Amino acid sequence: MNDSQTSGAGFAYQVGKLRFQYAHRQGWARSKVNGWTLNGLTFEVVRGETLGIIGPNGSGKTSLLKLLAKILRPQEGTIHLFDAELGVLSQSAVARLVAYVPQDFQQIFPFTIAEMVLMGRFPHHQNRQFLSGFRWETVEDIDQATQAMDMMDVAHLANRFISDVSGGERQRAIIARALAQAPSVLLLDEPMAFLDLKHQLEICRTLRQLNEERGLTVMVVSHDLNLASQYCDRLLLMKEGQVARLGPPQDLIQPEVLEEVYGCRVLVDRHPDSGLPRVTLPGRTGIVSASAGKT
Amino acid sequence: MPVTVDHRQYGKDVAKIPLAPSVEAPHGGSQSTASASLSLLSVRRWVVTILLLAGSSLLILIACLHFGAQRISVGEALQILARAIQDDQAGLASTGSVGVILIHVRLPRLLLGLMVGGCLAAVGVGLQALARNPLADPYILGISSGAAMGAAVAMSLGIGNSLLANSALPLCALLGGLFSIALVYRIASSSGHLPVHTLLLAGVILNAVFSALIMFITSIMDPTSLFRIMSWLMGSLTAPEYPVLAILALYLAVGMVILFSQAGPLNILTLGEEAARSLGVEVERVKKTLFFTAALLTGAVVSLSGIIGFVGMVIPHAVRMVLGADHRLLLPASAFVGGMFLMVADTVARTVMAPAEIPVGVVTALVGGPFFIYLLMSRKNRGASEIFR
User: Fold this and answer.
1) What total of structural domains would you count in chain A?
2) What is the pLDDT of residue A293?
């Protein structure tokens, strides 16, 4: 491909004209009824950047992440992961490069946190050998898992059952699993949803540090525009399955842009610490009416 | 246009560079102490557990040889066994009817129980991981009755009557099992996961339909073979010939090796299909492998011993509570415990009302049914609302 020779080396993902819809089953037939969830996305993710994906509910953020992790397959369009077509890479080859942290997660069987984090090492040992599914952890596996648990502050919970810890601790364990995967790209879906303030800050900083020190490409779906604004190099603003805007937080976090996409008026000022844009919803008795823009 | 990516090429900078000390949280301590304190499944623990279970299986086998309409002391039993192993025909003949009972009735029957129980429990482990639910079991999901229908059809067509055809009988049962497993999955699955209520309902319905079909087949059979069919359907271990045992052992070995080869993917599948895919598991392939193996083992077992319920549900659940959820240990351990359980259940079945025998399926249902209800009732307690999601 011409453009991948000129500029491809710098991109983690190149997404072209991506269209996707969920297949809904009705009786025995597969029918597609709900229209396109993602409708013609084209964008590129620069290698080593932190990209925030924001947008209203139902704009296709989670579906996009799942497509990028090869959990779902697109109907149309192309996805290139480090210049290779995602469709032809094996599932484990993708998993060696990309780790995905889902939005919610349930485990009913009594696995410990350490066992769960070690599952992140699975793709590194997948091969065509017949009994590769039955193997023991190597020293490197355990080292990687231990480091990941340390970074996510769950090492002290290593031998507890995953079903016995709190939602925030579970969330940290899942991020640890993703880090144990030693990925080049980390995809996170609402990673801060269950976390307390301290761990929100710690994890944001850890991810940023991994990004800066080890060149980890991070893509994070978040409803928290302020965290996205603080920690992301660029933001991808989605609306109705399409790219509404793509650019640095200073350009996107603006009242007019957000009103156009979200359909409500917000206040934007400067963050007192970093000077980056900060979003606030209008107060109950303030002079800015939230519905003003909605006519 | 490269079609494959060498992960080392891209992952190297991330995977190999040691972490900066500043990244490590204060909690962890040094790596060596942290990894030493992880309670993971070690090779040593695996070997010790398996040896212990194999030893206790042997002990239970020998103990069960003792019970029956005719009491045979353990010492005597061991003596006869030793002679049989040395192929000492004269010595064996001197033991008279006791030797015949032991070698040709009790021992093959116990070995059958060991293998049948092992198969059912191992299949149960696989199905529970796939359904992400501790209630899955070849009996409850209707796989057993599908296999039984296959076997009943084979019998009514007369291809299951000679020893040679004994290898055709499990094949027909395998086809029946595959058919019902495909149906259950098709009915129950919606957009990539298996909601448990529809899974259980699909099993109930298939059980009803297959039972009706089996009854239809038996009703047009000649009355002489009817009794044999009925007692087979209720789930009974009748002492088989040794070649039959050998065929079953072959099925068991193939199925077990396939299941073990999926131990790692099974662990990860318990996280759900999407998470498993993101961790590099080829979910569809693993599912097909599991379905086929479940049908293979269930078919082999059902064609010999009929429908024996609940072993595949109770045993994996109990073993998981004691040994943890890691399928590398859970699979073989459940197989051994399932074998032991069925040997004991069958010994109870043939002694409790001796000389009359009750079908072993009755015993396992009387144990397993209440256990199933207990699991259903305990949903309010241990976060089990997730079980019934």
Assistant:
1) 2
2) 45
Beta-bridge partners for B2: none
Return the closest-CA partner of residue A175 out of A101, A268, A259: A101
Asked whether residue B388 carries a pLDDT value surpassing 70, the answer given is no
Q: What is the pLDDT of residue B316?
A: 92
Q: What is the CATH number of domain B46-376?
A: 1.10.3470.10
DSSP sequence for chain A: -HHHHHHGGGEEEEEEEEEE-PPEEETTEEE--S--SEEEEEEEEETT-EEEEE-STTSSHHHHHHHHTTSS--SEEEEEETTEEGGGS-HHHHHHHEEEE-S-----S--BHHHHHHGGGGGGG--S-GGGGS----HHHHHHHHHHHHHTT-GGGTTSBGGGS-HHHHHHHHHHHHHHT--SEEEEESTTTT--HHHHHHHHHHHHHHHHHH--EEEEE-S-HHHHHHH-SEEEEEETTEEEEEE-HHHHSSHHHHHHHHSS--EEEE-TTT--EEEEPPPSSSSS-TTTT--
Q: Is B32 on the interface with A (CB under 8 A)?
A: no
Residue of A nearest to B317 (CA): A109
CB < 8 Å from A in window 238-267 of B: 260-267
CA distance A100 to chain B (A): 6
- Which chain A residues have a beta carbon less than 8 Å from that of B261? 130-134
How far the first Cα of chain A sits from its last, in Å, is 47
Q: Are strands A217-221 and A277-280 parallel, antiparallel or unpaired?
A: unpaired
Give the CATH number of the domain where residue A89 resides.
Answer: 3.40.50.300
Measure the CA angle with vertex B167, ends B161 and B173; round to 5°.
Answer: 85
Q: Is the pLDDT of residue B117 over 90?
A: yes
Domain that holds residue A257: 253-295
pLDDT over threshold 90, residue A165: no
DSSP string spanning B231-282?
HHHT---PPPPHHHHHHHHHHHHHHHHHHHHTHHHHHHHTT-HHHHHHTT--
The burial class, CB within 10 Å (0-12 / 13-18 / 19+), for B367 is middle
Token pair recorded at residue B206: 């298939």
Q: Where are the domains of chain B?
A: 46-376
Q: Which ipTM score applies to this complex?
A: 0.86
Residue contact B324–A213, C-beta within 8 A: no
* CA nearest neighbour of A133 among B204, B285, B260, B17: B260
Question: Which of B 66-85 lie inside 8 A of A, CB atoms?
Answer: none
CA-nearest of B279, B304, B173 to A100 is B279
Asked whether residue A59 falls in the same domain as residue A84, the answer is: yes
